[in-house]
What we know:
The protein is α/β, with parallel strands linked by helices. It has one domain (6-241, 310-334): Metal-dependent hydrolases (TIM Barrel, Alpha-Beta Barrel). Residues 341-348 have low confidence and may be disordered. Helix 7 (107-113) packs parallel to helix 8, helix 8 (131-140) crosses helix 10 (161-167) and helix 13 packs across helix 14 (258-264). The two termini are 33 Å apart. Strands 1-2-3-4 form a 4-stranded parallel beta sheet. The chain is 48% helix and 10% strand.
Amino acid sequence: MWNRPLADSLPFARELFPQPLQEELAAAPPPGLRDIMDLFHHHFAKWHGRDGRIGILLGPCGTQRCTDELLLEVNELSRQHGIGVHSHVLETRTQAVTAQVLYGKTMVEHMDDLGMLTPRLTINHGIWLTDREIDLLGAAGCSVTHNPLSNLKLGSGVCPVRRLLAAGANVALGTDGLTTSDTADMLEALRAAALLHKIGGADYDAWITADEAFRMASLGGARSCLVENEIGSIEPGKRADIILLDRSAWGFIPLHDPIRQLAFSVTSEAVTHTIVDGRVLMRDRVIEVLDEAAIKAEVADCAERFRRQDMPQMRAGAARLAPYVDAIYRRAMSMPLPGELSEPRVSR
């Protein structure tokens, strides 16, 4: 969900975008608030709770891309229905600067003013957080999704996981979109999360352990979706959401510490079965609930058509915006932030 025009969601854009470009962008505005809410109500009525396995969350796409009116309505719907809110927050330094320009305060402080900081909130990335913001998130019991592969590829920085955990926040593990991390492989994300934070300093007590990374990928993720009492661990009374791995995979030989070996040794090729709510979806690496070959062929055909027909025009449009977005980025990188380092955050 977003309803703030592009030129209003980037710092200095009104100053740097030429007037003809601003007029062109204004001719294609984002959806209106009521249209967004109508779409939510339609999908919530149709899908939420269906088959006992489908849930609808609210997804305001980056706080800076949403008006306060939209965010307040999202928060009220979250309260009424007891559902989660998932928003990309402070992935980049530019977003931290945007908060100062738009609100005169940090992004999380503004979200706190709107009443958004509750255990129902998950912020995605959470890299450019101040100490004050970390304390606010922890005190409210919010969740933060750590996306190490995406953040490494884009050079966004490193989520301060250790400090978030110490403050009382829940941390989940994610991959972000395929356009930024190029993979949805959770074992790759698990390995990255267990290795990345060793760069942050020589104090090994502050490093993220394999067990902690595994918890982010299991119970942390379940908590982020507000279903930690149903899934996320294997115990009586919970749903049978399980993956089975081949113990004879090289990464498990000899079997010594399964969690550490899962984080550092094996790949997703070791996964043989996937079980969701007791139903076997993949058996011996063969998906039983759909025709994988047919779907691959369909996706390949659609992707090739998109590459030929749509991408040239999209790239041309992006090229026109690129010089101005680059100027915004350069200016944001040089702008001081309150209580923040001048370089991307590392986990200490």
